[in-house]
Design goal:
The longest helix has 29 residues. The chain is mainly alpha-helical and 174 residues long. The mean pLDDT is 92. It has a single domain, classed as Arp2/3 complex 21 kDa subunit ARPC3. It contains seven helices and no strands.
Length: 174
């Protein structure tokens, strides 16, 4: 479903507020679920924001990443978030006309399983291939949890959350 918001150009006040709130919601949801390692609904929120707002969803992702740094610190992992989460945003924008929960669950799962590999890239420059590969391999159990969590949560929550998002946006076409 395409957004009924202006397709390009400057953000209007409504978009600015909603996109900022979505970035904050991404962080809040992740913090609330932090007792479960790598299980969260951030991917679903990014997908829904990209489906609704297109490339403007990157503003929400930037807010989320900045808040992550403020809460958890600006470690090496934080720099990889600047391309790992926008990669999911780009995939969602490209596929935004898709309405299948199963396809979105697969997209979220693929992002989850690839997340550790994406986050190992900075270690390539710090300590070479050995460090990057060892970082990635040591995180595979967490990537598997991330993959499974993303798949199940997206499969179950995508359509209901999409409906809530469209209703909140005042859009009747769901």
């Amino acid at each position: 479903m395409r957004s009924h918001l202006p397709p390009a150009g400057k953000l209007n006040v409504r978009e600015l507020c909603i996109l900022s709130l979505m970035g904050g919601l991404m962080l809040a949801a992740q913090v609330v679920m932090s007792a479960l390692p790598n299980i969260h609904i951030t991917a679903i929120f990014i997908i829904l924001t990209a489906v609704t707002f297109g490339w403007k969803a990157l503003y929400s992702v930037a807010v989320f990443i900045l808040l992550e740094g403020l809460i958890w610190g600006f470690g090496t992992w934080w720099f990889s978030y600047w391309y790992a989460w926008p990669a999911l945003t780009a995939a969602a924008v490209i596929m935004r006309n898709n309405d299948s929960s199963l396809i979105w669950a697969v997209v979220a799962a693929v992002h989850g399983i690839c997340f550790g590999a994406l986050c190992s890239v900075p270690y390539l420059f710090i300590g070479g291939w050995e460090m990057a590969v060892s970082y990635w391999i040591s995180g595979i159990p967490f990537d598997l949890a991330h993959c499974a969590g993303n798949f199940v949560l997206t499969l179950i929550l995508f359509k209901p959350l999409k409906k809530v998002m469209y209703l909140a946006m005042g859009q009747t076409k769901i």
